[in-house]
Structures are given as C-alpha cells and as structure tokens.
Design goal:
The protein is an alpha+beta fold. It contains four helices and 14 strands. The protein has a four-stranded antiparallel beta sheet with strand order 2-3-1-4. A four-stranded antiparallel beta sheet has the order 10-13-5-14. It has a two-stranded antiparallel sheet with strand order 6-9. The longest helix has 11 residues. Strand 2 and strand 3 form a beta hairpin.
C-alpha cells in the first residue's frame, strides 16, 4: 500500500462528491477498475482547497488536475497484543425499513425498501465501532468528536445529499493482525467516497 498527501483545488474540494472523483485522476491507467483507495480530509480552507491523506493499493501518479505533495510506501508491521493509537473519520449508520419509499421485488419476493439513518448518540456510535472491530482489535481508549454535516451534490443526477461524519480517536489493542490489515484496506463503514472509512495507526 501507499500513503500520500494530496492537495485538491477549491473548484473540486468545495463539493465532497467531487473530491473522490478528482483523486481518481492520480490513477490514469485504470479508468475501468474499481477505485481501491481511501482518503481523509485533514485541512479544508474555504476558497483555497483541501489537503487530504490517501491510502491506495497502487502508487499514484502526478496529475495536472491536483497536486501530489508526497508519496511513501505504507508497510505496516502488526502483531497480536500491540497497542496503537488510531484515527478514523467514519459515518456510523443503521439500516431501517421505510414504508414511504415503497416496496421492491427481489427473487420474486416483495420487500419494504430500507434507508440508512445516522447514529446520533455517543453510546450508539461507540457500539457501532466495537462491532466493526469485533475479533480484529479491542478498544482501550476512545474519544468521539462529532463533525459538521457534509452536504454534497451529485451533478449528473441533479440530487443533493448529506452525511454526518464522526471522528474517532483513541487506543486499540490488536487481536488479529491479518484481519486488521484487511479491514484497513477495505475501509470501515459507508460513505468512503466522501472521505470516510480510512483508519490511520501510530505507535501508542
């Protein structure tokens, strides 16, 4: 894996939906492949743009659309019982049935459509993270910091949307090094295209 620092100009940074689309320009030889990178906005300056850190399976390349500030291989040495500091911006949600959305037919059966709703209470958010880390790592310390909602617009669909990100920071103890690595590669929770799901680790 690679860890990169990237600057996105204001024209793309102001719409969270465009941030992910813009980062894809760093992988010009893979237009039809699945986007296997995660990112997190570290600094956002209105009128100037955003600085993000990005984790990717492939090494990014310079682009005229944005500025690739730094790239380094991300070689994680994990072992069972290891204590690590972590940082994760995530979108904790639950799925509920929504009668107002009508029904859908799947495999010949009728189902009430479902929607995702944010978890707004800190205890619910903590339980959500514990479930995501079950069998992978145990939480030893945790600070939960709510963030401002992310409002975005999908230009092609002419549709607005909103997500409610949460910043998790604390200390974890590794239970399964291989599973933790897999979880980090795939990302944690939904809204990965909006800068959620990327966990970074550091020595505790």
């Amino acid at each position: 894996m690679y860890l990169s620092k990237v600057k996105i100009n204001w024209a793309q940074a102001k719409n969270p939906y465009e941030q992910h689309r813009t980062l894809w320009h760093l992988f010009p030889d893979r237009p039809q492949e699945q986007r296997d990178f995660l990112y997190r906005v570290e600094r956002f300056s209105k009128g100037l743009g955003a600085e993000v850190i990005m984790q990717s399976q492939q090494k990014p390349q310079q682009s005229e659309v944005l500025e690739l500030l730094a790239v380094r291989p991300l070689n994680l040495s994990l072992h069972k019982g290891q204590r690590l500091r972590f940082r994760l911006r995530a979108n904790p949600v639950k799925t509920i049935k929504d009668v107002s959305k009508g029904e859908q037919i799947k495999d010949g059966k009728s189902y009430i459509r479902t929607v995702r709703v944010p978890l707004i209470h800190e205890e619910q958010q903590q339980d959500w993270l514990i479930r995501k880390l079950d069998g992978v790592a145990a939480l030893q310390a945790l600070v939960i910091q709510p963030e401002l909602p992310l409002n975005f617009r999908k230009l092609k669909e002419q549709r607005n949307g909103k997500i409610q990100p949460i910043m998790f920071e604390g200390i974890l103890v590794v239970e399964s090094p291989d599973e933790l690595l897999k979880l980090m590669q795939s990302g944690i929770g939904p809204a990965k295209a909006f800068g959620c799901g990327m966990m970074t680790l550091a020595a505790a």
